[in-house]
Amino acid sequence: MRALPPAQVKQSEAPSNGGHSSRPTQRWHQYQQHRLQQAVERVHDYRVASKDTTKEVVLKDATLARQYKTTQAIERLVEDLIQESMARGEFNNLPGAGKPLKFAPENPYVDSTTRKLNEVLITNGYVPEWVVLEREIGDDKRRLRAKLADRRSLLGPAPLAADEQRTWDEAVRSFHSAAAQINRKIDKFNMLVPLLNKQQLHFSLATESEKILNSAAPRNTAAPKTPQLQQSREDEGFLSFIFSAITNRW
């Protein structure tokens, strides 16, 4: 059975013979032929689209294959060039050959002369001045904080009484010269240190004293006598009494 084109189907469905329509059986057969033709066209379109997709996949795989082959070709070329250079002896007598690799980090902002001088000093047991200053600054800060804590331990809990506050203020003023000396070392250290992230801020005596004042424990109080200590003293008194009694008797 030959399928009729859509134009013929529509024409057959239109009234004819002076306005009289065709028979119902004929119209049904024409409708079935029209549906069959649409199904055939949809199948054809799907197959064409599938072929296009398959073709795209094949082209993509071919592109990846060419890229992989190109990469392999470049690697083989580089390997051949390296082998030829090694055969000609171009890798002989390279600087650092046979020596351990340097894993020590280097500062890119320090010139080569300063780096070499530092290496010579370190090799001979010397250290740069800024390293010594950094150590001294840390020790001075710890000593000053310890002295402030000792003075604070002689006073009562915060808030201090009027006389204790005057005592504390005088103690803090007595450390002004030590704090100024630390800050002078910090200024010198900041001028010598080659790294910006190693720069230090001034030591604030007011801030440190305030921290110690509010965080320290109250004054040291005499420890209460323990029962063991009291018992030992009673034993000593009893033995002394017996010894004195025997001495007087003789």
TrEMBL record:
Pfam families reported for this sequence: DJC28_CD
Chain segments carrying region Disordered: 1-31
Polar residues composition bias: residue spans: 9-31
Ranges where the DnaJ homologue subfamily C member 28 conserved domain occurs: 77-145
Segments traversing the membrane: none
Protein name: DnaJ homologue subfamily C member 28 conserved domain-containing protein
Organism: Haemaphysalis longicornis (Bush tick)
Highest classification ranks of the organism: Eukaryota, Metazoa, Ecdysozoa, Arthropoda, Chelicerata
